[in-house]
């Protein structure tokens, strides 16, 4: 579906959707329809995208749109990232994991990274040379981030990271991973730190299973293992250890907002496709949409979609 489902349904336009945001939405929709959708079934079957798609998205300006231009981004805002997420949902290629890369991983580096870290990592995230992930969840710690067991011990001017992570989005492809670690296990939340691991050719890093899921199969979701992985202490995000929990709490609201944005887009696509179907489907000599009960159900669904967009 190349046409905007929200426009087909007559849903209100978000207040933040200025003209340039709309132009980005149109461009992103065309890219997703022309470059991603034709191969999407293949990606779903393989349960992973290819790196070429990421590089194409970078070349099209769809990676790190909200990052400053000086770091390789497009100088936009979260509204621009939302337009891209919306386009992904409307075209129906929801497994393309650039939302986490754009709206979650890159902002951690922008907000907490040193100038050297920003210049080193953000331009490559913007081109797709680096694919980002954030490793929070562990086999024994999900929503309870204070329960993280992954340990980062200082060894001279390096950290040695040991532990395991699971359900990590982009985990099979990512070569830049923000790892939630304990630099001081005795301090609980105040002993949590975020450390960046570049995985290419690093010793002690292993990818486990690409986990099977009910949906979003093409968005690789992985187990990760860190066995005394050595990274420079300069890869710590923030000026001192122990700030990781606060950093996570500051950024998680945007992550949740991004999930909501994608969900609204998928609802709109599903409703538009349903309306198309019941217009074509015939039963008892007439289109299913002509039955009063069908109209009642569709009216309820459109009301819910309208409410979602009104608060969006």
Brief synopsis:
Helix content is 44%, strand content 18%. With 312 residues, it is an alpha+beta fold. The model has no long low-confidence stretch (mean pLDDT 93).
Structural notes for this entry:
- The relative contact order is 0.14.
- Helix 2 (19-36) runs parallel beside helix 5.
- The chain contains nine helices and nine strands.
- It is elongated, with a radius of gyration of 21 Å.
- The mean pLDDT is 93.
- With 312 residues, it is of the alpha+beta class.
- Helices cover 44% and strands 18% of the residues.
- The chain has two domains: 5-131 and 252-269, Acyl-CoA dehydrogenase/oxidase, N-terminal domain (Butyryl-Coa Dehydrogenase, subunit A, domain 1, Orthogonal Bundle), CATH 1.10.540.10; 132-248, Butyryl-CoA Dehydrogenase, subunit A, domain 2.
- The longest helix has 37 residues, at 244-280.
Topology:
Layout: H1 5-8, H2 19-36, H3 40-46, H4 51-59, H5 78-91, H6 98-112, H7 115-127, E1 132-135, E2 151-155, E3 158-169, E4 176-182, E5 192-198, E6 205-210, E7 221-232, H8 244-280, E8 282-283, E9 286-287, H9 292-310
Parallel strand pairs: 1-4
Antiparallel strand pairs: 2-3, 3-7, 4-5, 6-7, 8-9
Helix pairs in contact: 2-5, 5-6, 5-8, 6-7, 6-8, 8-9
């Amino acid at each position: 579906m190349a046409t905007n489902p929200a426009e087909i349904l007559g849903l209100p336009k978000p207040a933040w959707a200025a003209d340039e945001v709309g132009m980005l939405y149109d461009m992103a929709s065309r890219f997703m329809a022309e470059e991603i959708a034709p191969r999407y079934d293949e990606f779903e079957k393989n349960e992973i995208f290819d790196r070429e798609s990421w590089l194409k998205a970078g070349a099209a300006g769809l990676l790190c749109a909200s990052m400053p231009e000086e770091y390789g981004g497009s100088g936009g805002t979260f509204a621009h990232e939302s337009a891209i997420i919306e386009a992904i949902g409307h075209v129906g290629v929801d497994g393309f994991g650039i939302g986490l890369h754009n709206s979650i991983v890159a902002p951690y580096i922008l907000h907490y990274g040193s100038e050297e870290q920003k210049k080193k990592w953000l331009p490559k995230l913007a081109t797709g040379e680096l694919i980002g992930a954030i490793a929070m969840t562990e086999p024994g710690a999900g929503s309870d981030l204070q329960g993280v067991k992954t340990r980062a011990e200082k060894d001279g001017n390096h950290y040695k990271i040991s532990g395991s992570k699971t359900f990590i989005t982009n985990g099979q492809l990512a070569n830049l991973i923000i790892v939630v670690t304990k630099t001081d296990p005795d301090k609980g939340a105040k002993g949590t730190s975020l450390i960046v691991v570049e995985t290419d050719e690093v010793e002690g890093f292993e990818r486990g299973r690409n986990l099977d899921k009910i949906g979003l199969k093409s968005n690789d979701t992985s187990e990760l293992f860190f066995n005394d992985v050595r990274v420079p202490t300069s890869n710590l995000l923030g000026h001192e250890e122990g700030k990781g929990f606060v950093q996570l709490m500051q950024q998680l609201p945007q992550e949740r907002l991004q999930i909501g944005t994608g969900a609204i887009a998928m609802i709109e696509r599903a409703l538009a496709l349903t309306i198309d179907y019941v217009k074509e489907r015939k039963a008892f000599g007439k289109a299913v949409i002509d039955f009063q009960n069908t109209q009642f159900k569709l009216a309820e669904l459109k009301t819910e979609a309208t409410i979602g967009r009104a608060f969006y």
